[in-house]
Amino acid sequence: MVQAKSWVLVKHFDGFPKSSDFELRVEDLPEPKDGEVLLEAVFLSVDPYMRPFSAFRMQEGDVMIGTQVAKVIQSKNPTFPMGSHVVSRCGWRTHSLSNGTDLIPVMPDWPQDVSLSLALGTVGMPGLTALYGIEEVLGLKKGETLLVNAAAGAVGSVVGQIAKIKGCKVVGSAGSDAKVAYLKELGFDEAFNYKTVGSLEEALKKGSPGGYDCFFENVGGAFSSVALNQMKDFGRIAVCGAISTYNDSNPQTGPYPHFIMIVKQLKMEGFMQTRWEHKHPESLKRLMGWLKEGKLKSREHVTKGFENMPAAFMGLLQGDNIGKAVVAV
Ligand SMILES: NC(=O)c1ccc[n+]([C@@H]2O[C@H](COP(=O)([O-])OP(=O)(O)OC[C@H]3O[C@@H](n4cnc5c(N)ncnc54)[C@H](OP(=O)(O)O)[C@@H]3O)[C@@H](O)[C@H]2O)c1
């Protein structure tokens, strides 16, 4: 018998999440049955999607959705031996039982000197998102100029670095001077703090006077309206996220993109990384390869303690993180 803790959404978010929207629950878990494993969370991910997805994927009383790296601490399933690590979508729980169908083993040859937490970040879902956005959606080509916002975050930081690997010019925006310094460290050609630049239009023009071939969109809202005007004709936009709208109780309205899309003949495509699930194993190997070669650097914002999950999540939504936000149990 093991005591399992979980964080439950007791009240649907209204505007920015509050501590009182969450409740910590404790339950006793039975021994695993034949075919089952007992998992113990090691690292848990907090991600922006949890905010909008909670509204239509969850009911009040449900355990918060989410992914974790967990250790198999008891096993009655030979596919997942005791002591092995898996990526599990079991949500905000310290312990869980699984029959294995929803588990992904961590890459078999995961290097000793790479933290397993990266399976939730650069060599996990956010890294895959960056890769597919660039290759499958934008079809980014050598010599092109790419703009990415929320650039110092989990997805954005990988986007910029992959674009550099591909021989492109990269311009990034982020919400603090420390983040801008980090982008320079990563090799971004231009970076600016969108909160202090006075005019976003001028900052984008300065970043690339000739405009942008590609825009990896993480933020949406007002930023997007300004950025579309700085695209080159036939520019391509990968709509990955719209974090500036996730906490809105009332949807933001215009300016609407249609006219600028017509006159500049832009191509805009929304995507979810799950579309290319069949490519994940090969793509994770490529991301790990770049990491080991030093072409991809990775930083994490680690919050200690399962009891701090809500605080870590709210911190992410207000931009506390440089790199991937994770919780270490
Ligand atoms: N389509 C997919 O399959 C997929 C998969 C993963 C993620 N995403 C999306 O990709 C985006 C980035 O996700 P991530 O996991 O890499 O998160 P992240 O960038 O590590 O963290 C979120 C960042 O968003 C920025 N932000 C927060 N509120 C903002 C606002 N009102 N305006 C502008 N920026 C704001 C903050 O950075 P600043 O300090 O720079 O503001 C914050 O650090 C999100 O929109 C997410 O939903 C999509």
TrEMBL record:
The keyword Transferase does not apply. Coiled coil: none annotated. GO terms for molecular function: 15-oxoprostaglandin 13-reductase [NAD(P)+] activity; 2-alkenal reductase [NAD(P)H] activity. GO terms for biological process: prostaglandin metabolic process. Its EC number is 1.3.1.48, 1.3.1.74. It is an enzyme of class 1 (oxidoreductase). It catalyses: (5S,12S)-dihydroxy-(6E,10E,12E,14Z)-eicosatetraenoate + NADP(+) = 12-oxo-(5S)-hydroxy-(6E,8E,10E,14Z)-eicosatetraenoate + NADPH + H(+); nonan-2-one + NADP(+) = (3E)-nonen-2-one + NADPH + H(+); leukotriene B4 + NADP(+) = 12-oxo-leukotriene B4 + NADPH + H(+); dodecanal + NADP(+) = (2E)-dodecenal + NADPH + H(+). Residues 15-327 form the Enoyl reductase (ER) domain. It is found in: Cytoplasm. Keywords: Acetylation, Cytoplasm, Fatty acid metabolism, Hydroxylation, Lipid metabolism, NADP, Oxidoreductase, Phosphoprotein, Prostaglandin metabolism. GO terms for cellular component: cytoplasm. PANTHER family: PROSTAGLANDIN REDUCTASE, PROSTAGLANDIN REDUCTASE 1. Belongs to the NADP-dependent oxidoreductase L4BD family. Monomer or homodimer. This is Prostaglandin reductase 1. It comes from Xyrichtys novacula.
